[in-house]
Amino acid sequence: MHPLSSMVTKLLIFFSIIAPLTFALQATDFYVQDLPLLPKGASSIRMHAGLLPVNPQHNGSLFFWHFEKKYPSDKLRTVIWLDGGPGCSSMAAAWTEIGPFRFQDENTIIENDGSWHLYTNLLFVDQPVGTGFSTIDTDSFIHELDEMANQFLSFLDQYMKIFPELLENDIYLAGISFAGQFIPYIAKAILEQRSTLKLRGLLIGNGWIDPVTMYKSYLPFAVANNLVVANSDLYNRINIEVKRCEHALFKQATEAMIDGMTWNGGTGFDFGNGTLSPKDPWIVDGESAGLIQSAHYNFIIIQTTQSLFLNHQNIAAEDVYVSEQETFTPPSPEMKKSRMKVY
C-alpha cells in the first residue's frame, strides 16, 4: 500500500471516532489534541476539526480543519481554502501543499517549513456536501453553484457560532482548479448576504474560470516564456488543438442555449426565464436565431429567408410542425452555402 494511502486510512478511522462528537456546538468538542504519528513538538500547533451540519434533514454536513497561526502578525487573517474537482477534498492541500504537515512515509509525519499557517489562520473545508469527509444522503448532492454558495453560507453561520473570532479576521478565499468556479459565487454570496464578514480578497491558482479565454492564453503564454517557438511545428500543432477545443466549447454552449428555447409561434422564442424575443426573431444580422423542435426532429430557422431548414437531411417535410404564420422551405444548394449556422 502506498504510504499516503495507509496514512489516509488511519486518519479516516480517527475522524470516524471524533465525528459523532462534532454536533455539540462548543469549540472544545472540535479541539484536536493529538494525531497518529504527529512529530515531536508539533502538539503546539492548535487545531480544530470536525463536521458542521448544513442540511440536517438529509444528513448533510461539511468537514473542516482549522490550523491556528503560529507567529504573531500585524493583522488577524484567516485563509479559507477550497479545493476544486468538483469533489476534491481540501485535505489534499492541507497535507500535501500549504498545511503544517507532510507525509514522509507511512510511519512518519514531518512539519512543513513553508506552511501558510505560520502567519495566518488556515481553514480547510471539504465542500460541497459529499466531498472528502463531508457527508450527505446519496440523493441530495448539490449540482448548482448558487446552491453551493448558499450551503457554504450555512456552514459559515454554524462555524461562527462556535468560533465567533472569525468576525474579527480579514478573510481571504483561496483555492485551485474548479475552486475558480466556487470562490466567485461564495464571495458574491458573502458580500450580498453576510456583510459582517471582512472579506478582503480572493486567491485563485490555476483556476477553472472561463475555458474559452483560458485556452486562448495558453499558447501565447508558452511563446512569451520561451516554452514554445512561434511558428514551429509544435506551435502549429498546439494551435490546431486550441482551435478544436474552442470549436467544441462553442458548439456545446450553443446547443445548450438552443435546447432551452421554446418556439411560441408568432410571439417568438421563450428562453425559459419568462421573457420573449421579438415577433420576428430570425431577422438579426443574417444569423440563425435558434431551434424549433417537433415531436421527433430539430429544425433551424434561417433568418434571411424566414424559412425552416431540417437539421436532419432525410426527413420528410410533413414531419415538420409550423404555425400558419410560418412556412417550410427545403434547403436549396445556394442556401446551404449561405451564412446559415447549423449546430
TrEMBL record:
Topology in membrane: Single-pass type I membrane protein
EC number: 3.4.16.6
Signal peptide: 1-24
Primary location group: Golgi
Catalytic activity: Preferential release of a C-terminal arginine or lysine residue
Cross-referenced Gene3D superfamilies: alpha/beta hydrolase
InterPro entries for this protein: AB_hydrolase_fold, Peptidase_S10
Pfam families xref list: Peptidase_S10
GO molecular function, one term: serine-type carboxypeptidase activity
Protein keywords: Apoptosis, Golgi apparatus, Membrane, Signal, Transmembrane, Transmembrane helix
GO cellular component, one term: trans-Golgi network
GO BP, sorted A to Z: apoptotic process; proteolysis
Location of the protein in the cell: Golgi apparatus, trans-Golgi network membrane
Family membership: Belongs to the peptidase S10 family.
PANTHER family in the record: PHEROMONE-PROCESSING CARBOXYPEPTIDASE KEX1, SERINE PROTEASE FAMILY S10 SERINE CARBOXYPEPTIDASE
Protein name: Pheromone-processing carboxypeptidase KEX1
Higher taxonomy: Eukaryota, Metazoa, Spiralia, Gnathifera, Rotifera
